[in-house]
Amino acid sequence: MTKIAYIGLIILAALVGLFIGYCIWIPDWHIPYLLKYDILRDTLTIVLTVSAVVITAIGVAIYLILSERLKRESASASRLESVQKAVQMFIHAGFVFWESYDRAVKKEPQYIEIAIGLTERAFLFYNQIPGKESRSRENERSLCLIKNNLAYYFALRKKVKDRDIAREYAEYVRGQASQYTEDKDNWLETYDFVKRQYPD
After folding, report:
1. Where are the domains of the chain?
2. Whole-prediction pTM value?
3. What residues contact 122, with CB distance under 8 A and at least 6 apart?
4. How many Cβ atoms are within 10 Å of 154's Cβ, its own excluded?
5. Comparing C-alpha atoms, which of 107, 199, 114 is closest to residue 149?
6. Residue 153, number of CB atoms within 10 A of its CB
7. Which of 67, 109, 119, 195 could form a disulfide with 94 if both were Cys (CB 3.0 to 4.6 A apart)?
8. How far apart are CA 149 and CA 154, in angstroms?
9. Which residues, other chains included, contact 59 with Cβ-Cβ below 8 Å and sequence gap of 6+?
10. In the predicted model, what is the mean pLDDT of the chain?
11. How many CB atoms lie within 10 A of CB 144?
12. Nearest Cα to 119, choosing from 89, 155, 160, 140?
């Protein structure tokens, strides 16, 4: 309930209290005794009825507002979770294809292409995460994983057109490595690999 609604209820209660007090203490010579309490009873009945209607209306309005807000927040949370899972899935799928390339006796270039495509798809999903949520530690780590993996895959493919983006991603991940000790060694290794593949 808003501050204005609270003030309105306080003023209404004060006015009702003043009126009831007036009805109780009104001098007998102004109005017959029984009639005085009939007015008080009728007034109380009207005030209580109106109050009940107003309180019910306010309650229904609050319920509808909260219900709508909860629906929106629930839908937003559900969508965010779906996007985060999609990001993780595509990162992992890209990694699986890189492993297939790395383990194969004959290095099949299509595996690297698929790994890059899947990881770029993870990037697309990551960009759908709202700004505030994207700054959480978990989502920041996902972004670093995407950039780390892409930098490594680009350097492995070693096409001239990928040089700048691979170096940019490797630099970004190196800058974040100190905040993620569990990934630090891998990310610094990627940075070194990119520098070797794309020297100054």
Report:
1. 3-66, 79-197
2. 0.66
3. 86, 87, 88, 89, 90, 91, 94, 142, 146
4. 25
5. 114
6. 27
7. 119
8. 8
9. none
10. 80
11. 21
12. 89
Q: How many CB atoms lie within 10 A of CB 75?
A: 10
Question: Residue 168 pLDDT more than 70?
Answer: yes
Read off the pLDDT band of 176 (50, 70, 90): very high
Give the dihedral of Cα atoms 81, 121, 169, 179; nearest 10 deg: 20
Which SS3 state, helix, strand or coil, does residue 169 take?
Answer: helix
pLDDT tens column, 97-108: 998 888 876 677
Round to whole Å and give the CA distance between 156 and 118: 16
Concatenating the DSSP letter of every residue in 119-145 gives HHHHHHHHTTS-HHHHTSHHHHHHHHH
**pLDDT for the residue numbered 60:** 72
List of residues 6+ apart from 158 with CB closer than 8 A = 197, 198
What pLDDT does residue 122 have?
Answer: 94
